[in-house]
Amino acid sequence: DFLHKEEYDTALIYFNKSLEYQKSAKNKQGQMKSLYKIALIYYLQNDLINAEKNALKSLELAQNTGYPLRITDASSLLADIYKKQNNWKKAYNMYELSVKMRDSIGNAKNQKITLKRQMQYEYEKQAAIDSITFAKELEIKNLQAKKSRTQRNYMFAGLIVLTIFLTFIFKNYKQKQEANILLEKQKQEIQTQADNLQKANEEISRKNKNITDSINYASRIQAALLPSQNLFGKFFSDYFIFYKPKDIVSGDFYYLKQIDDFLVYAVADCTGHGVPGAFVSLLGIAFLNEIIRKKEVQTAAQILEELRYEVKMSLNKNNAESRTNDGMDIALCIINTNTKKLQFAGAYNPLYIIRNEELTEIEADKMPAGIFIKEDKPFTNNEIQLKKGDRLYMFSDGYIDQCRVACTKKYSTKHFKELLLNISSKPMQEQKNILEKTLNEGSGNYKQIDDILVTGIKI
After folding, report:
1. What pLDDT shows up at residue 237?
2. Is the pTM of this model over 0.90?
3. CA-CA distance, 34 to 49, in Å (whole number)?
4. 68 pLDDT more than 80
5. Which of 35, 263, 396, 419 is the most exposed place for a label (fewest CB within 10 A)?
6. C-beta of residue 358 within 8 angstroms of C-beta of residue 286
7. Domain range list for the chain
8. What is the CATH topology of the domain spanning 226-458?
9. How far is Cα 437 from Cα 443, in angstroms, rounded to an integer?
C-alpha cells in the first residue's frame, strides 16, 4: 500500500477518508485503527505535534472501549513520540502502559489455551471409551460387507476388463482396416500425381527445348545480320568488339555499312534484352539498311530522324501496348573514307574520341530513336575532322551499369572514361581483354543484369 511505498501524503489522504467513513458507521475499532495510522504517518514525517494529537485520540478511544491491543499500539507510538521530544517522564509512562497491556494480552491468551486443551482432553477421553465398543461392532459388520463387496468387485472388474479388451481388439481391427484402405487410396493418388508431374515435366522440357532451339536459331540469324570481323578489318587498322549478351540473343547491336566513299558505323541499345530486345534490334538493322539504301539521307542526324520515324510507326501500330520508352538508344557516325571527316548524331549514347591522351566526349541528344513522352526535336549533327591515330569508342550502358551493381555503387561514367584513357595506347585487342578482365573481376558471383557492348576503332 501507499504507507509501505513511503507515499505518505497519498496514504494520509486515504486514512483520513477511512476515519470519516468509520465515524459515520460508528465503528469505534475502525476509528482507533485509522487514528493510529494517521499518527504513525505524522510521526514518520517528523510532524510530532499532529502525531501526538492523533495518537492520544486513538489511546483515549481504546481505553474507553477496553481494547488492549489498540491501547498497546497507541501507547507504544506515544512513547516513541515523547522520546523524540525529550519528554522522558511521559515516554516512560507510555512505555510502562504498553508493556502492561502486552502482558495482559499474553495472560488472557494463555488462559484460553489452557482451558481449550483441558476440554479437548476430556472430550477425547470420553470419545475413546465410547468408540471401543462401537468399533468392535462396526468391525464385524465391515468384515461381512467387505467380503461381499470384494466378491462383487472382482466380478465387475472381470466384466470391465473383458469388455475393454474386446473393445480394444475390435477398435484396433477397424483402425487397421481403415488405415489400409486410406493408405492404398493415398498410394494411388501419389502415383497419379507422380505420373502427371512426369508428363508435365516432359512437356515443359520439350517446350523449353523448342524455345531454346528457336532462340538459338534466332541468335544465328542475329549474328548473320551483324557485320563480320573481316569487314571491320577492311576499314580500320585496329579495332575491338566486346559483345556480351545477357541471354542467348541480345537487344544491343553494332552496325557497319559502306556506301560509296562513306562508312555508316553505329552502336545501339534497344528496349529490353533477350528475345524482346532482339526483335527490336532486328527492326533497327532492317530500318538502317533501308534508310541507307535509298541514298536520300545526307547526314547522321537525318538517318536518326528517319530511324525514329520508322521505329515509331512500327511499334505504335497498337497504341494500347506501346510504351513511352519503346525504341533504342543509338550512337551513329558517318565517316568519309577520303577526307576522314566524321559526322555524329546520338540518341542518349555519346561518342568518345581519344587523341593525344585526351578524351573528348561528343554528347548525344537526350531522347531515344523511338517513342518519347516529350515532343520530338531534330537530332543534332556534329562534324569532326579525324586524324590518323584517333581512337573512337561507342557503347551501350550495359558495361557501366554492371560495374555499378557488381563493383561499386559509386562507379560512374567518369570511372569508365578514366579506364579507357589508361588503356587507349594499347592495341585494341588488348584493350578488349582488359575491359573484360576488369568486368569479370569486379562482378564475381553477380549475375549479368543487361546486354553489354563496347566497340573501339583506330583511324
Report:
1. 85
2. no
3. 17
4. yes
5. 419
6. no
7. 226-458
8. Phosphatase 2c; domain 1 (3.60.40)
9. 10
